[in-house]
């Protein structure tokens, strides 16, 4: 059962939709579902980063990677594979998991 806030929001958005030229209510499934769709879009639009050759700006686009982490990645090259980041103590496992589909090391 939807809570009162969701119902009021839905009605408000339906009414607002009529004022902007559409009578179709906005589908407000859940924030989690919308975030997942956004994450998939972000992954699909981002090029895979080669940690052995990319610049610092590319590394800074990764989730959980700040300037100091990016510099550590660059200073400790080369990497045999992306899991070497954890093995060398450059990145924690959670950060690697959050970025595993966005990075590679050479051809691996």
Overview of this protein structure:
The protein is mainly alpha-helical. About 50% of the residues lie in helices and about 5% in strands. It has six helices and two strands, in the order H-H-E-H-H-H-H-E. The N and C termini lie far apart (about 50 Å).
Outline the secondary-structure elements:
Layout: H1 4-19, H2 31-45, E1 49-50, H3 56-59, H4 67-75, H5 84-87, H6 93-99, E2 103-104
Rg of Cα set:
21 Å
Number of domain modules: 2
- Please give the number of β-strands: 2
- List low-confidence stretches: 11-16, 19-26, 36-42
Q: Report the sheet with the most strands, covering strand number, pairing sense and barrel closure.
A: 2 strands, parallel
Count of runs of 4 or more consecutive helical residues: 6
Instruction: Bin the helical content.
Output: 40-55%
Residues in β-strands, percent: under 5%
Q: What would you call the structural class?
A: mainly alpha
CATH superfamily of the largest domain: Photosystem II 12 kDa extrinsic protein
Remind me, CATH topology of the largest domain?
DNA polymerase, domain 1
Order of helices and strands: HHEHHHHE
Strand order of the largest sheet: 1-2
- Mean pLDDT, rounded to whole units? 77
CATH class of the largest domain: Mainly Alpha
Q: How far is it from the N-terminal to the C-terminal residue, by CA? A: 48 Å
Instruction: Supply the CATH architecture of the largest domain.
Output: Orthogonal Bundle
Q: What would the principal axes of the Cα set say about the shape?
A: globular
Descriptive key words:
2 domains; 6 helices; 108 residues; DNA polymerase, domain 1; mainly alpha
């Amino acid at each position: 059962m939807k809570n009162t806030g969701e119902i009021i929001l839905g009605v408000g958005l339906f009414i607002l939709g009529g004022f902007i030229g559409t009578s179709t209510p906005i589908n407000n499934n859940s924030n989690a579902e919308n975030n997942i769709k956004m994450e998939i879009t972000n992954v699909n639009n981002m090029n895979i980063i080669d940690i052995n050759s990319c610049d610092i700006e590319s590394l800074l686009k990764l989730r959980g990677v700040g300037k100091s982490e990016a510099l550590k990645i660059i200073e400790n090259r080369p990497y045999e594979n992306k899991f070497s980041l954890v093995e060398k103590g450059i990145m924690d496992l959670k950060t690697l998991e959050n970025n595993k589909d966005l990075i590679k090391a050479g051809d691996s």
